[in-house]
Amino acid sequence: MKPKQEVVTTLAREEWDFDACPTEELSTCWQYERQRETGESRKAVLDFRKKFGLHTFEDLRGELQSRMGWVCAYECFPEWPRTPFLAIDSKERKRRLKLLPKVAGVDDWPYYLVTDITKILQNYAEGGFSSMLSGDTLRQSDWPEWREIVALDVNWLLTDEQMLRCFKAFLKQRRPPDVKQNESRGAGNDQRQSRADLKALGALRVLRHTQNDWMKAEEITERMSRKGKPLFENQPSWIRARKRAQTMLKEGAMAWHTRRLD
After folding, report:
1. Integer Cα distance of 246 and 181 in angstroms
2. Predicted model pTM
3. What are the tens digits of pLDDT across the range 209-221?
4. Tell me: the pLDDT tens digits for 61-98?
5. Which pairs count as long-range contacts for 91-95, CB under 8 Å and 24+ apart, including other chains?
6. Where does the chain have alpha helices with state H?
7. Do 101 and 111 touch, CB atoms closer than 8 A?
8. What is the DSSP string of 124-180?
9. How many whole angstroms separate alpha carbon 230 and alpha carbon 174?
10. Which residues contact 239 (CB under 8 A, 6 or more apart)?
11. Residue 119 pLDDT exceeds 70
């Protein structure tokens, strides 16, 4: 019987083990960790910090809030992208997150719809937007086909019910037929989904570390896990998790295109 091969375990547990993430921080953790995998986001945020000489959470939050109107945790956490989310002191994370807007979900639709008209027109004047697609629509040149800004003429004399009927008719007329809609999930399902997504991302990172040697990945995660169990068992499970993470990161790069921080 061959002696057991020594495995190098230089990958920090917080890079792949997200079991300890509090439920209320799951969405922020996923956004933070996903953007660590995005080269454009890393460059945009690091260039912004260097340009304005900002290195603390308070300074970054204040500057981004005044310039952009809203901020993401990863943009103003000075540890990002070097440090995993869960490697930041839990009390400090909670303190900061109380000062930031929560990561929006489907029920927070005004978060998505309300935007700064002044910045839109300024970007358009500076060439940040492509030519108008129609008389009421603007689309930034690097946006995917499923995202656009539409001008609506709102009559506030209408009741909420009347407005909802109007908007329903608008969606029926204007929704692109070739764009696949997101699946509707409850809060509990969203949390389970986030944990599964993070677990898949962890698998991708461990496999990257072991150069796709799933047996080494299994041994490392079993040895370092709080539960004493591997992240995944058997080769097919590791491969499925890696593919899932790769797909999510690809889709995330489209959905969360890097915004201008200048």
Report:
1. 20
2. 0.72
3. 999 999 999 999 9
4. 999 888 877 788 999 999 999 999 999 999 999 999 99
5. 93/25
6. 26-36, 39-52, 57-68, 73-76, 90-98, 109-113, 117-125, 160-174, 187-209, 214-224, 235-255
7. yes
8. HHTT-B-S-SBTTEE-BTT--TT--EE-----TTS-HHHHHHHHHHHHHHHS-TTSP
9. 48
10. 214
11. no
CA distance 104 to 149: 18
Q: Which residues of 30-41 are buried (b: 16+ CB within 10 A; e: fewer)?
A: bbbbbbbbbeeb
Distance CA 153, CA 253 (A): 32
Strand, coil or helix: 78: coil
CA distances from 49 to 4, 44, 57, 79, 173 (A): 46, 9, 11, 12, 43
Q: Which of 172, 16, 173 is nearest to 85 (CA)?
A: 16
State both tokens at 23: 């439920």
Amino acid type, 46: L
Structure tokens at 62: 């204040």
Q: How far is CA 7 from CA 12, 189, 190, 199, 201, in A?
A: 14, 36, 35, 21, 21
Q: Which residues contact 68 (CB under 8 A, 6 or more apart)?
A: 259, 261
Q: Provide the residue ranges of all domains of the chain, joining segments of one domain with +.
A: 109-174
